[in-house]
Amino acid sequence: MRYYETLYIVNPNYEQERFDGVLKTVGGFMENEKVNVINHHAWGKKRLAYPIQKHKYGTYVLFQFESERVDFLPEFEQYLRLNKAVIRHQTVRLEERPEIHIEEEPIVDESTEAESTEEVAADTESAEEVIAEEPVADPTTEEEPTEQTEEKE
Fold first, then answer.
1. Separation of alpha carbons 5 and 77, rounded Å
2. Angle at 81 between CA 80 and CA 85, to 5 degrees
3. Mean pLDDT by 10 residues, the chain (153 residues)
4. Which residue, 18, 98, 105, 130, is the most exposed by fewest CB within 10 angstroms?
5. How far apart are CA 120 and CA 110, in angstroms?
6. Domain tally, the chain
7. Which domain holds residue 26?
């Protein structure tokens, strides 16, 4: 089995729906060629090292696949070259099978979340107690100025 990796850059001006359509068409092309897709995920929008077709940014996509045959590679390269959405691409052969990429979701620990809301509530209660204990100045009584400044003669 041979392993390949293609990194391609999609036009950064595409909205999410159109971008997803590009990913589906590239994946669909490979499925028609009976190629086993290992990973196909977007890296996100990044600044380019130099402008390509007057674009300073591009959306990078990593596409890893495996196949026994190699006769489809020239057709795949031509497909990417003719696809208007793809502004650059490069395919390389890998020595070993790449690891499967799993999208990680942020892990939220419910116990930590509950503790933090309890701490906020406790802080709010203690702040209310401090405010209640402070004496309130009576605006009707005038305070005499303290002698902190020297009088000028």
1. 12
2. 65
3. 92 92 92 89 92 94 90 92 94 87 60 52 54 56 55 52
4. 105
5. 15
6. 1
7. 1-44+59-64+89-99
